[in-house]
Amino acid sequence: MRSRFEPDRQLTARMVVTMFLLGLVYVAFVAALIALLKSVALVVVIAGALLIAQFWYSDRIALYAMRGQIVTAEEEPELHGVIDRLCATADMPKPRVAVSHMDLPNAFATGRNADHAVVCVTTGLLRRLETDELEGVLAHELSHVAHRDVAVITIASFLGVIAGLMVRFAFYSQLFGGRNRDQNTAAVIGVVMLVSAAVYAISLLLIRALSRYRELAADRAAAMLTGKPSVLASALTKVSGDMARIPTKDLRTAQAFNAFFFAPALKAGDALQGLLSTHPSLERRIEELGKISAQLGEVAGGEPDTTA
Asked: Which GO terms label this protein's molecular function in UniProt (predicted)?
């Protein structure tokens, strides 16, 4: 069933192209390793099994890692109420609702499809945002589910693990395979490492480019659904500002989930931010929301101008 979230054909096209290119990269990688090492079938099987497990159980893995717990409407009536209203407006299945008891102000959505999705918010976010700001953040996360980019980014992000597993297998099999290694063996290991580095770099750039665009798409979809882009901008500014007050060690712990968060826990350095960041800059997101606000004729107070 198609939701009422505004479709984004550019996002769909980018997801298809990214997965196609990643597929080509990894097919070439596996073929190269098979030619070089003669014995990588076991690693391919193991990596494939792990990929399936990651895809099938991504919601449980993410909740466990972020210390999230599924909550009922009786436990979190306001949170459930906001999600109920948004799902009714968007005409989409209601995901499971979870809360992570962390001071880090953030939210994320995960799951392989709309029927197996989870939207999780932290207690730090619930404590800091007003109800309409929370609505904007949750609409952003629900749009990820509606656009199906959660599943795509889950698969794409995990593919990088395959390269690491295969290289480790190759390295240790040669390392502990005996002391009588000739120059050919050393050359093979060197080529494997170079191929792995190239695959990782290409994958990283493709995934980060997709991740940045999907955040802009989710901002736009949420703003159009709620009709309050300025409120979403307010929530984004508040969350990003308060993130700076969280201890660095807590931010580093959560950094692995940057690609899934509403706002990144830690940003890349200025020189690398454009290429390696999982999110567009705060300024870019605020600017885009400002354009949507003008498009909708939004006036002060976050309500669309209906006087025309």
From this structure: metallopeptidase activity
The reported pTM is: 0.81
Q: Which is the catalytic residue, given 133, 141, 288, 298?
A: 141
Closest to 268 measured CA to CA, from 260, 258, 276, 259: 276
Give binding residues for Zn(2+) as ranges.
Answer: 140, 144, 215
Residues 6+ apart with CB under 8 A from 275: 205, 208
Cβ distance 30 to 44 under 8 Å?
yes
- Cα–Cα distances (Å) from 133 to 125, 138, 223, 234, in that order, read 10, 9, 11, 7
Q: CB-side exposure of 304: number of CA atoms within 13 Å? A: 11
The ranges assigned to domains in the chain are 9-174+183-296
Q: How far apart are the first and last CA of the chain?
A: 34
Q: Give yes or no: 141 in active site.
A: yes
Q: Return binding residues.
A: 140, 144, 215
pLDDT per residue of the chain (308 residues) written in tens, 0 to 9: 466 787 788 999 999 998 888 888 877 777 776 766 665 666 667 666 766 776 777 778 778 878 889 999 999 999 999 999 999 999 999 999 999 999 999 999 988 777 888 999 999 999 999 999 999 999 999 999 999 888 888 777 666 666 656 556 656 655 555 555 566 766 766 776 777 777 778 888 888 889 999 999 999 999 999 999 999 999 999 999 888 788 877 777 777 778 889 998 876 555 456 677 889 999 999 999 999 999 888 654 455 554 44
